[in-house]
């Protein structure tokens, strides 16, 4: 199901948290439609069944193009989050990310994992081309970064979070995020460790679910910085990105205030278009005819 979002002037970005989010700029957004939820495993499975599509993570890679040791580099696979045994240097993402041959959307943590019984969870291990292909099949497209942020704010102007300025409402979690000490202790958000089913957490003011937390979501916007201290805009959630990268929005179930406070509408991360991981999914948008 999609929701129509009326257009307006977005105060895009934030100057409170990470340098790549600033400065705040005014952006005109035309009316559009956007999915109420991220695309689920069941929905993506229907797409694959009808088209025979093979995702990027299922295709063998050229190890010369990736920082992956042989022989794993030649095998199809993807990045899998693996909790550490205790505290580690939070500046080194390799402490908790592993390249796992055979990891893909049907087996998000590797060959021994499954999505059986998880049809209503957001699909993950999705690269940019996978999201674009699904959207085209569905007669939709990916949202732009301004559209995504406008929708995520749910009508709130300048609020830190999709529900207001407080990290959470008293005695109520509003998003599926890391609970505990990252990356080794997670007590679960409302019982969920990893992804939660779509519609598990309260919707925002526009009736959209899990716009922040649960999974990072692809946008169709090519990465560019506002004004960043180091020009990278990279949150350390995975490998360094390259030119032609796209903007991810929304944060994920791995976001933790002590490491990655990015479950906010203004938060953004730079992602290589050929990378998939256990915390990256997407939702679709559609233009409104005649919208100004």
UniProtKB/TrEMBL annotation:
Signal peptide: none
Domain (Sulfatase-modifying factor enzyme-like): residue spans on this chain: 4-286
Protein name: Formylglycine-generating enzyme family protein
Source taxonomy: Bacteria, Bacillati, Actinomycetota, Actinomycetes, Micromonosporales
